[in-house]
Amino acid sequence: MNNTARNNQRNDVIQIDLVALIKACWRQAWLIILVALICGSLAYVGTKYFITPTYRTYFSAYINNSVEMGSSTTITSSDLTASQSLAETAAGIIESATVLEQAAETAGLGEEDSASVSTSVDSESGIITVYVETTSPKISASYAAAIAEVAAGETARIVEGSSMQIIDQPKIPTTIYSPSYTKNTAMGLLAGAFLVCAVVVLQELLNDRIQDQAELEERYGISVLGAIPDWTSVGKNQSYYYSQEKAEV
Q1: pTM, entire model
Q2: Could you tell me the strand order of the sheet in which 127-134 lies?
Q3: Whole-number Å distance between alpha carbons of 215 and 192
Q4: What value, to the nearest 5°, has the Cα angle with vertex 67 and ends 128 and 94?
Q5: Which of 8, 70, 126, 160 is most buried as measured by Cβ atoms within 10 A of its Cβ?
């Protein structure tokens, strides 16, 4: 009895036919494409009209371990080592509330203007890159320039015997940094296609009806002795002949 129960449990295991699922999705390809296009269009429209675009600019700076470099433009290995050790400290000073508030006041930022500032330090060269992101290209450039000016003074004040040299000046951005129309539209297309595919696959998995003779034999291990023909799929002459024969009987 135990062996029989185990065999029955093995037979009750549901097998997922990936080929059948793929065929089911292929039959609904037109619906998948339609919903994907609708969702992609909605994502594009929502991105364009309901999300405020932001503009990003940056400047890069190098921290010296001396206030004056003199007429020499050569950076020695000792200067590079000192700059690497000071870079993290300078990055923290740049992101401090004191520097950002003074720079915002210098650039004329109002309370309604949102801004994001982040820094990145190259561990090998000690170069600091400061990214400034606002909702206006001109404000982004002016705010970044103000941060560079204020940060240079604060770094020299806090880190005695050091100075900040600006390598790349901030420029007015000419393109939108965020959001990405292409990315959001693509995500909308994929989300629509995935939604329809998920519904089709779920319907296919929940469909427990026997589809054909082969599935019946495979699922229950029995042989089919006969089948009732589907008279709706035969030709008109055959259907008429059958009805006449049945009437004579």
Answers
A1: 0.68
A2: 115-121, 127-134, 55-64, 163-168
A3: 32
A4: 30
A5: 126
| Angle between the N-to-C axes of helices 18-27 and 181-206, in degrees from 0 to 180, rounded to the nearest 10 | 120
CB count in 10 Å sphere of residue 62? 21
Task: Quick: pLDDT tens for 38-88.
Answer: 999 999 999 999 999 999 999 999 887 654 544 445 555 555 666 677 888
Six-digit token string for 176: 């939108």
3-state secondary structure (DSSP) of residue 14: coil
Contacts of residue 69, Cβ cutoff 8 Å, sequence gap at least 6: none
User: 53 with 179: CB under 8 angstroms?
Assistant: yes
DSSP assignment of 30-92? HHHHHHHHHHHHHHHHHHHHHS--BEEEEEEEEEESSS--TT--PPPHHHHHHHHHHHHHHHH
**Amino acid, single-letter form, for residue 86:** L
Higher per-residue pLDDT: 248 or 102: 102
- What's the confidence (pLDDT) of residue 14? 53
